[in-house]
Amino acid sequence: MGDEGEIFVRRAEFDDQPHINELVGEEAHVTARRFGDYNVATMIEQASLGITAVDDKDAVVGYAAFFDFPYLKNISQQDWPSWLHSAYGNAELTPANTAWLSFFIADPLCQTEVAENILRTAFTTLPEVDALLLALPADVRPFAPLRDTFEQLPAAEHATATGGVDETDTPPPEAEYNVYVCPRGLYLPELLVREARVEDHDDLVPVFDSQSEVLSERYGEFFIAELIASQDEVNRAVVGEVDGHAVGLMGCSSEIDVSILQDCFDLEPYENLMKPDDDGVARAAAARRRA
């Protein structure tokens, strides 16, 4: 599978369950303190994203489960944003741009590499996610290797007025947990999408040539610059930029030869990409009723 010692990651499978439990082993009490009551089989089945890490011999060396909500018994799966924003602020963290790391285990001999690969893969697999969140009981300190990448969110001012604990018989949820955040930028560069400019040509040529030399041979050395320069009302080009350099290009056009698409693909479920007239819609509805 690769060089000796290399770590690979893949989607978690139900058959990984016994191997993950073996990783937990005698540290089950420590894992339970960190993540509460857990069931590996249930997490594999229900997690929004489960990632298993394996070594070059295909032995399981790590596992992580990500959910759309904090996997905590006294935090509502639906109302967790209100809890988070009330306790910690950070209104920019929403269900639309976050995921919760609710379980993590790794072989101590390669835990840093496992975390690196799993977290990078999570951000790659979930392009809409800007930050990963981790909730730990207040009496549990961040642990290796996650403490190197997750930073604790400070409590909102109103929550720290009494030291973070409401002086009642039942402490509020924010007093029971600390929340940590890992931003996407630690693992993947932030991408700026903008309109393409002719001067992007020099950055884009090596990107294209590294994937196919046929384009330059077929369309000429300056076809990228020509494509960008030919933008008009119906043909547009955008680039993705990282650290001031264009790293990707997309050309878009509103001029579509529908007949070619109709010849090459079965588009009947999509009305052959044509806008049906009112009579056509009525006839189709009548046909469905008769069927």
UniProtKB/TrEMBL annotation:
It comes from the Eukaryota. It holds the Pfam family CFAP61_N. Residues 9-276 form the Cilia- and flagella-associated protein 61 N-terminal domain. PANTHER family: CILIA- AND FLAGELLA-ASSOCIATED PROTEIN 61. This is Cilia- and flagella-associated protein 61 N-terminal domain-containing protein. The lineage of its organism: Eukaryota, Haptista, Haptophyta, Prymnesiophyceae, Isochrysidales.
